[in-house]
């Protein structure tokens, strides 16, 4: 029987990939068919996304499917959260597409709090304060490009924008929209009253759709370019929401760590926790598949080590950095990985050294020493977060499920097991793409529901276990 293929286009902040999936004797198989680099460009001090280049790479990856003779019956796109495109009344992009690390949001939190207090905003949305949240980006638009904001007829987040270019259908997907800090966790729709309070045009915002919604087929122009037609289906388009779908267990009350450029640690709840205790600990209640809430904390993740690696001119693979770090048991310095100085420094290595110097810590020098500081600091941050989650929810967890690219970081996973005292279950590494595909397969009746799809993931991919050594 000829395989049926599903295409996940998974675009992260540093790279993108096209993953084809099919079923073989009840197991999911995946194949990477195209990969490309990504990153913010610096334009006169502004950190921007080159959306035209990103879309060109989406098309190139789709063409690769044709070359391989593996035409997907459907496809979907996921990306990181919070960033967006403004469209005019001709559906053309207005102005720059800013990246979340741009400094234009500096001070915008205080402008928002002139309208609504930080405490009330959290109670209303349940979303963790991050200076780059969309609410602060839109407030920045009011100050630095008010005419463009006034001209805008449509607000559309990045995966929805790319799918609009493919299909001609504009729509907004729920999970990614929740990261804006403009969605009501009770109604699961835009908080129009809040939007009005902020003085933003409510008519820009489209009704939110659930993952699994079929947008339509490719436009005639795109069909001609890629050489075939396919359905475009909404996945959980916030990459973390897709990744969490692929946690390889059918158990409830699971603790997960989505480990990539960012580390997202949390659990799934059926109702958002917008209480003061959660706010003080800076937890967020992001929307998930099937209206589950991802009660989690954003932790600066492998972005730090990715930056360090580039600054050593990519002489080391990540595996080699881990091996070098393992040789440095004498390193005791720790950094606060969530300190704003690590968000977008000119030089990450120097930022780490400066932090250690300013805090009277031993200053790391070699690549291995710097990597050890980063990895050990991440593990300690994970341990602190586990304790906060368990205290806030009055639940004790036996294991942490590590999904995403960090599942391959054996050294970090062992440090995490040691620092938390929990069993670390690592894999699958391509969790985001797999979750993207799961939503498509559920929509296509391959699986009945999320639980059945997770059971398939558990049985289809290699999973490693790490136990506490000390």
From TrEMBL:
Residues 255-443 form the Carbohydrate kinase FGGY C-terminal domain. Its EC number is 2.7.1.5. Belongs to the FGGY kinase family. It comes from the Bacteria. It is an enzyme of class 2 (transferase). Residues 5-245 form the Carbohydrate kinase FGGY N-terminal domain. One of its GO terms (cellular component) is cytosol. This is Rhamnulokinase.
């Amino acid at each position: 029987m000829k395989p049926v293929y599903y295409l996940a286009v998974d675009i992260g902040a540093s790279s993108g990939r096209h993953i084809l999936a099919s079923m073989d004797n009840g197991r999911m198989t995946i194949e990477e068919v195209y990969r490309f680099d990504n990153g913010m460009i610096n334009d006169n001090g502004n950190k921007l996304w080159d959306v035209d280049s990103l879309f060109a790479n989406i098309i190139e990856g789709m063409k690769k499917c044709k070359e391989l003779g593996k035409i997907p019956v459907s496809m979907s796109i996921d990306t990181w959260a919070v960033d967006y495109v403004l469209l005019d009344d001709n559906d053309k992009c207005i102005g720059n597409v800013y990246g979340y690390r741009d400094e234009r949001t500096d001070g915008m939190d205080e402008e928002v709090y002139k309208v609504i207090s930080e405490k009330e905003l959290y109670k209303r949305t349940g979303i963790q304060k991050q200076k780059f949240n969309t609410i602060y980006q839109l407030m920045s638009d009011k100050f630095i490009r008010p005419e463009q904001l006034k001209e805008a007829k449509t607000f559309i987040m990045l995966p929805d924008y790319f799918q609009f270019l493919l299909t001609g259908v504009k729509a907004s997907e729920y999970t990614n929209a929740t990261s804006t800090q403009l969605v009501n966790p009770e109604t699961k729709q835009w908080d129009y009253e809040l939007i009005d309070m902020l003085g933003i045009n409510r008519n820009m915002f489209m009704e939110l759709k659930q993952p699994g919604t079929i947008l339509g087929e490719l436009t005639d122009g795109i069909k001609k370019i890629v050489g075939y037609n396919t359905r475009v289906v909404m996945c959980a388009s916030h990459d973390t929401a897709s990744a969490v779908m692929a946690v390889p267990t059918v158990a409830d009350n699971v603790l997960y760590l989505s480990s990539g450029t960012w580390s997202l640690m949390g659990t799934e709840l059926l109702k958002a926790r917008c209480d003061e205790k959660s706010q003080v600990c800076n937890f967020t209640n992001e929307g998930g598949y099937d209206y589950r809430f991802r009660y989690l904390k954003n932790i600066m993740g492998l972005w730090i080590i990715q930056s360090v690696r580039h600054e050593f001119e990519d002489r080391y693979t990540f595996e080699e950095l881990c091996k070098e770090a393992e040789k440095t048991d004498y390193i005791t310095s720790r950094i606060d990985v969530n300190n704003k100085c690590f968000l977008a420094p000119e030089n990450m290595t120097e930022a780490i050294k400066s932090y250690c110097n300013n805090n009277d810590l031993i200053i790391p020098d070699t690549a291995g020493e710097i990597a050890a500081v980063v990895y050990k600091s991440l593990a300690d941050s994970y341990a602190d977060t586990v304790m906060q989650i368990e205290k806030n929810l009055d639940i004790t967890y036996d294991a942490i499920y590590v999904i995403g690219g960090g599942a391959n970081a054996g050294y970090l996973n062992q440090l995490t097991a040691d620092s938390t005292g929990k069993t670390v279950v690592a894999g699958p590494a391509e969790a985001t793409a797999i979750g993207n595909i799961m939503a498509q397969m559920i929509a296509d009746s391959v699986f009945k529901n999320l639980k059945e799809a997770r059971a398939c993931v558990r049985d289809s991919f290699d999973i490693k276990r790490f136990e506490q050594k000390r």
